[in-house]
């Protein structure tokens, strides 16, 4: 059983998007073929450390969102604060730091998430990203006349993700007496300190039609790059009869296991190599050395998740993967659908596994081991300036 990550990220996406005015929940509006929610999860997956993810969506969209998403998905409520509370209720036990993030800030770079986590760890209290206010700010009376000019040198426009020690955030939500527009306000009400770290211009909140236009422009100025890669892996069957067989992320009872530093899952390993190669980010050997004790006996799913994170940190998402297993046993076809579904969910993209034999030729044909060959398509973004 993998340990609970110390950080959880709640992505709130249950708003109706009234100010955007598209008669559709805002997070489910598409920009260049992908929803705002889906885009907002890219940087979360690109964070430096593995995190638990909780996504909060309108009740009617919970089942649809949960299908194929590697995250807990729960129903939100009438206000942002109530939606955060719904997400907070399912944060895994053992979590130390919680980040609350607006799906509407879909282009926040991963380094902002990492910066907030580092500052929460360093200070032991709440941390929010913010930018100095650049406009002159006026107090205006109800009749439209200017009342006064507010000293902007003390003002900060705050963004998300906002990070807090879990205990402080839970307590602040338990004590909350009013409805606030951000989580830091609840923490201050509960008497906890909150500090500001640098935010990022790309972290703007998609609120109005103008903001949506800005998001579309941002993507238009980005050139999508498609790249393909190939990966091959082979492992001999173990001489230890008690060794379990793990293949394509699945356990195969009664089948002879493969030897190797990890569980020897050739399908998962070939996929990782294809993805890393396609992205120009090295290979399995250079990324996951045998010196790492955490990887001793690790299942293929661990390598696949880490590979997805490595890609996401460099702005790549998985397009699709096709992989062929070569060997005499196990008979793969009865579990193909199960394998495809598991691997697709882990990578967030279609994965198709097929199997063949070598007609008795070579070491694989003699039943000495298994081989897998994978091809992968990755999609990246190159900023054009
Ligand atoms: N009841 C709500 C309201 C807001 N949010 C989320 O909180 C973030 C910030 O809210 P905002 O940008 O104000 O979104 P909406 O409430 O959808 O916008 P509007 O006020 O225009 O309806 C968004 O990601 C939104 O989905 C939420 O999860 N539940
Ligand atoms: C949390 C937030 O994004 C910080 O700027 C903001 O307060 C949410 O604003 P809204 O009132 O829900 O639009």
TrEMBL record:
GO BP field: isopentenyl diphosphate biosynthetic process, methylerythritol 4-phosphate pathway; terpenoid biosynthetic process
Domain 2-C-methyl-D-erythritol 2,4-cyclodiphosphate synthase: 226-378
Parts forming coiled coils: none
Site (Positions MEP for the nucleophilic attack): residue numbering on this chain: 152, 205
Cofactor: a divalent metal cation
Annotated PROSITE patterns: ISPD, ISPF
Region 2-C-methyl-D-erythritol 2,4-cyclodiphosphate synthase, annotated ranges: 227-385
Keyword Metal-binding: yes
GO molecular function, one term: 2-C-methyl-D-erythritol 4-phosphate cytidylyltransferase activity
EC number: 2.7.7.60, 4.6.1.12
Residues annotated as binding a divalent metal cation: 233, 235, 269
InterPro entries, A to Z: IspD, IspD/F, IspD/TarI, IspD/TarI_cytidylyltransf_bact, ISPD_synthase_CS, MECDP_synthase, MECDP_synthase_CS, MECDP_synthase_sf
Residue positions binding 4-CDP-2-C-methyl-D-erythritol 2-phosphate: 233-235, 261-262, 283-285, 356-359, 366
Alphabetically ordered keywords of this record: Isoprene biosynthesis, Lyase, Metal-binding, Multifunctional enzyme, Nucleotidyltransferase, Transferase
Pathway in which this enzyme or protein is active: Isoprenoid biosynthesis; isopentenyl diphosphate biosynthesis via DXP pathway; isopentenyl diphosphate from 1-deoxy-D-xylulose 5-phosphate: step 2/6; Isoprenoid biosynthesis; isopentenyl diphosphate biosynthesis via DXP pathway; isopentenyl diphosphate from 1-deoxy-D-xylulose 5-phosphate: step 4/6
UniProt-annotated stretches for the region 2-C-methyl-D-erythritol 4-phosphate cytidylyltransferase: 1-226
Site note Transition state stabilizer, residues: 19, 26, 261, 357
Reaction equation(s) it catalyzes: 4-CDP-2-C-methyl-D-erythritol 2-phosphate = 2-C-methyl-D-erythritol 2,4-cyclic diphosphate + CMP; 2-C-methyl-D-erythritol 4-phosphate + CTP + H(+) = 4-CDP-2-C-methyl-D-erythritol + diphosphate
Family the entry assigns: Belongs to the IspF family.
Function statement: Bifunctional enzyme that catalyzes the formation of 4-diphosphocytidyl-2-C-methyl-D-erythritol from CTP and 2-C-methyl-D-erythritol 4-phosphate (MEP) (IspD), and catalyzes the conversion of 4-diphosphocytidyl-2-C-methyl-D-erythritol 2-phosphate (CDP-ME2P) to 2-C-methyl-D-erythritol 2,4-cyclodiphosphate (ME-CPP) with a corresponding release of cytidine 5-monophosphate (CMP) (IspF).
Name used for this protein in its record: Bifunctional enzyme IspD/IspF
């Amino acid at each position: 059983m993998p340990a609970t990550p110390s950080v959880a990220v709640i992505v709130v996406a249950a708003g109706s998007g009234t100010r955007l005015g598209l008669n559709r929940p805002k997070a489910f509006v598409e920009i260049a073929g992908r929803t705002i929610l889906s885009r907002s999860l890219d940087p979360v997956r690109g964070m430096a450390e593995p995190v638990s993810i909780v996504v909060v969506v309108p009740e009617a969209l919970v089942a649809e969102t949960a299908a194929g998403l590697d995250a807990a998905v729960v129903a939100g409520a009438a206000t942002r604060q109530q939606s955060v509370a719904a997400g907070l209720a399912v944060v895994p036990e053992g979590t130390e730091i919680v980040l609350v993030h607006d799906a509407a800030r879909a282009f926040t770079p991963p380094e902002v998430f990492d910066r907030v986590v580092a500052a929460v760890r360093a200070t032991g209290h709440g941390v929010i990203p913010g930018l100095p206010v650049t406009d002159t700010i006026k107090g205006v009376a109800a009749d439209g006349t200017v009342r006064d000019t507010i000293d902007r040198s003390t003002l900060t426009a705050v963004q998300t993700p906002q990070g807090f020690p879990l205990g402080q955030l839970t307590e602040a939500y338990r004590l909350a007496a009013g409805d606030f527009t951000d989580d830091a306000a609840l923490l201050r009400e509960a008497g906890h300190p909150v500090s500001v770290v640098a935010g990022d211009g790309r972290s703007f909140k998609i609120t109005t039609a103008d903001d949506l236009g800005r998001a579309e422009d941002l993507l238009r100025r980005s050139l999508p790059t498609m790249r393909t890669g190939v990966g091959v892996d082979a492992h001999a069957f173990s001489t230890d009869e008690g060794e379990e067989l793990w293949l394509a992320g699945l356990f195969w009872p009664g089948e002879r296991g493969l030897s190797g530093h990890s569980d020897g899952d050739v399908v998962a390993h070939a996929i990782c190599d294809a993805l890393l190669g396609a992205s120009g980010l090295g290979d399995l050997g250079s990324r996951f050395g045998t010196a790492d004790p955490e990887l001793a006996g690790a299942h293929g799913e661990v390598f696949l998740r880490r590979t997805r994170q490595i890609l996401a940190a460099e702005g790549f998402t998985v397009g699709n993967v096709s992989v062929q297993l070569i060997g005499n046993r196990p008979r793969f076809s009865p579990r193909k659908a199960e394998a495809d579904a598991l691997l697709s969910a882990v990578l967030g993209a279609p994965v198709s596994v097929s199997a063949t034999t070598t007609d008795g030729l070579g070491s694989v044909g003699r039943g000495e081991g298994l081989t897998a060959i994978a091809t992968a398509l990755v999609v990246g973004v190159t900023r054009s300036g």
